[in-house]
Amino acid sequence: MKTLRLLSLATVLAFVFAGCSGPTGPQGPAGANGANGANGNANVVSYLYNVSTGAWTYDNVALNWYVHLTPVAALTSGFINAGGVVSVFFSANSGTSWNALPYTEVVGASITASWSINMTTDLVQVNYAYSDQAMHNDPCTEYGASPLQFSVTCIAAGIVKKHPSTNWSNYYEVQKVVNEENGMKVINQ
Predict the structure, then answer these.
(1) Helix or strand or coil: residue 4?
(2) Residue 26: pLDDT above 50?
(3) CA distance 123 to 176
(4) What ranges do the domains of the chain cover?
């Protein structure tokens, strides 16, 4: 009986070790897809632009100064349709303080200057107009700062949902979210 057990054990071990070598069999069927992960870090992209006096163009029909901030590669139709947020800020003091666009300020007794933006795929247009509709100096000259800095941050809808209490018009709150998302991209233009 003892011999039969040893012979059976030897036979089993021979089959086990013999099965460890030989040609690879055909590939099995694909497994089921895994669960969706959290939104990745490519969902937050910031662009920094330095805009000098010569970059501004005056529009005689709209009666405003404008500049195109491009490229904004993250600003795609898919991004816009999915509900992404674009936060645009400007600084006239080398990034010491930032104002969210749109923005209006009093520049005279009864005159205001207004900043506004238009967006399309891959481009943000910044507009600067005066309430008296007269042609004043370009924004760099008016602020005594050349270049003016502009920050354009594209935040995917999933990241916006992840941070429901963020004020997307506050530069410092936006930057806090940007810094929390690992691998955040800042692209100097």
Answers:
(1) helix
(2) yes
(3) 24
(4) 41-188
pLDDT at 40 over 90: no
Q: Read off the pTM.
A: 0.73
Cβ atoms of 143 and 92 closer than 8 Å: yes
58, β-bridge pairs: 65
Tell me the pairing of strands 185-188 and 44-51.
parallel
- At 107-164, the pLDDT tens digits run 888 899 999 999 999 999 999 999 999 889 999 999 999 999 999 999 999 999 999 9
| CB environment 135-156: b (16+ within 10 A), e (fewer) | ebebbbebbebbbbbbbbbbbb
- For residue 7, count CB atoms less than 10 angstroms from its CB and return exposed for 0-12, middle for 13-18, buried for 19 or more: exposed
The span from the CA of 101 to the CA of 127, in Å, is 10
* CA–CA distance, 63 with 129 (Å, rounded to integer): 7
